[in-house]
Design goal:
4-stranded antiparallel sheet; Sulfatase; Alkaline Phosphatase, subunit A; 16 helices; hydrolase; single chain; Alkaline_phosphatase_core_sf; 626 residues; 10-stranded mixed sheet; alpha/beta; 2 domains
Amino acid sequence: MIHLKVLTPKPPQYFKPGIGKIWPVAVLIGMLGLQSVKAQNTQPFGGTVGKTLNDSKEWWPEPHKAPAGAPNVLWIILDDVGFGATSTFGGIIKTPNFDTLANNGLRYTNFHTAGICAPTRSALLTGRNHHYVHEGGFSHIALSAGFPGYDGRIPSDKGTVAEILRENGYNTFAVGKYGLTPDEDATDAGPFDRWPTGKGFDHFFGFLGSATDQYKPDLVEDNAHVTPDGRHLNEQITDKAIFYITRQHKAAPDKPFFLYYAPGATHSPHQVAKEWSDLYKGQFDSGWDDFREKVIARQKKLGIIPAYAKLPERNTRIPAWKSLPPAEQKLYARFMEVYAGYLTYTDHEVGRLINYLKQSGQLDNTLVFVIIGDNGASKEGTLHGEINPKKNSAKLLAEAPYLKTNIEDIDDIGTPQASTNYPLGWAQAANTPFKYWKQDANSEGGTRNPLIVYYPKGIKDKGTIRTQYGHVIDVLPTTLEYTGIKLPEYIRGIKQDTLQGTSLVYSFDHPEAANRHKLQHYYIFGSRSIYSDGWKAEAAHHPDYVELNDFTVGKNVPDISFDDDVWELYNLNDDFNERIDLAKKYPEKLKELKAVFEEQAQKNNLYPFIDWYDVYHRRIHQNYKK
């Protein structure tokens, strides 16, 4: 048998195999063909096999082709952006590129996420509820558990949008945050079946975790870690996205692409060049109370929210801005200047991508979805904000507040050497006009995020608003219906489960169309809710928990039974931002909705309920003590 010597290329920094190996030719050919075989559906042989070639008929499977005229598809999802942050949906922070897309497309103002990053992303990519695809928490060891709803491993019978579109003739690319790879699989040794390339993406450039430093990211390309080049991650992923599309378009100009563009922004650490944060110098000196008043007025003027809307009361844990001493006002204003610059810079990088598509003649045939946030604004920056959390860990253990340290470190906010996150007051402001924030799956403040749909060739009613109820599980079926693609019965030989989302195409040309997505449950870390045709029942769990420094380090979070959680009832048709609790007025309606929630919980793997705050809090304490 002939042997070939296969030289191993220079290994990545985390993987050091031998210099070379000797492989039999047959084995080598098999290895080279493995990827293409795995990427194809099994098709029954259509020829004839006789005893000789003369009495046999050759047959080759038809190559996968997209439907004639199928558009490119671009999904953009930002991280930790509140409903009221962007200028596109009434906010003060300038997002001119999102404005342009929305002014030439559709604004969806009643669209929802799961309430936290990995659950939202798993639901988005699969078109199925996050517990149903095993992402009830995260894929991280600290926040996963050995139960069907929580093990953090998306089953193969619940294929992703990338797998579906690749099976239908698309090239598929992903850049930025993935967040769905189990920690134990996230080394250069794999296994790689739960990396993006194992879930249908031809190429991936970004990070596998939930968050990363924007200048020193834990960076991956395809199936190996790579060394970042020192530039901001947003710039790197945009360049890579343009590279992937350019290369593909040159080789196969008639073949459509799917791009999943998921920057780590605006998740902490909030890091951005001063040229961006200084755009907002002095603009937040009037504070978070004034911010909320200005934003709700702008939202009404734009028709984003009902004219009758009123602001919920300021959360009791957040002080009135005018009550703060000047040093604190200066500190907190700088936090928001940096965040605003970070968001505007992210919009700029999206604009670079859109401009490339326009200049290369591809934008008119590209269906674009922009989800502004995978959950509401983040409460994870604590009451005073974070600049250098590690520096403050000793003070936390001594039960000392670190406000004084933050004031001393004000010039570090937003810089590469800091790990910045803004304080709670700005989280509530960015979520205007809703209550609560990220992680609170009971509340619209945790789960309502803006959606833009843009398609020059297909959107007729440009610049208009849609109020139909939607959820991230709807984006995949919407994409399939609009592109004329059906969910494959099999992907790589595995029979596929049904989708759970509802296509939004019915609303594209019909702003007054009745809702078709009538039922949706939510559950994150014990907080839960059920939406049913305009009514919503909800229960908070640990409603006053903000982050680590809310409880004395070294002690457990208070033990609160799920049975003690208080359920509330709202009619969102008349009270869209949950100001009037009707639980006592309509107890039978609340009972009915709780029964519906129970049905959904059983169907979608929500049990067992796990008090993740307690689990996570204890693990964090252990790490701090080490």
